[in-house]
């Protein structure tokens, strides 16, 4: 599980899948669906509400400024990554 903790983009979905499998095996399909939806909602709450609040307090910026900055960085970085040639393509 070191990889899951070290790389959050892999760890959180992997943990959700494991939790859903356990819920499916012990309580059935609806329990697995509820676990998946619950974990997804918690992740969204953390990423879109809690992180901007905490980051804003740490750097003395309004949470909306932090959220907009993260969004702008993601858009710019994503556009740059899409337009740059990949090292992995033949």
What does this structure look like?
The protein has 90 residues and is mainly α. It is 86% helix and 0% strand. Helix 2 packs antiparallel against helix 3 and helix 3 (29-59) packs across helix 4 (63-83). The longest helix has 31 residues, at 29-59. The protein is elongated. The protein starts with a helix and ends in a 7-residue tail after the last helix.
Can you describe this structure in just a few lines?
This protein has helices at 2-6, 8-27, 29-59, 63-83. By secondary structure, it is mainly alpha-helical. The model has no long low-confidence stretch (mean pLDDT 80).
Secondary-structure topology with pairs:
Elements lengths: L1 H5 L1 H20 L1 H31 L3 H21 L7
Helix pairs in contact: 2-3, 3-4
List keywords for this structure.
86% helix; 4 helices; 90 residues; mainly alpha
Unreliable sequence segments: none
Question: What would you call the shape?
Answer: elongated
Mean pLDDT: 80
Question: Structural class, judged by helices and strands?
Answer: mainly alpha
- Span between N and C termini? 32 Å
N-to-C SSE string, H for helix and E for strand: HHHH
Number of helices: 4
The total strand number stands at 0
SS strand fraction: under 5%
Task: Summarize the main sheet.
Answer: none
Whole-number radius of gyration?
A: 18 Å
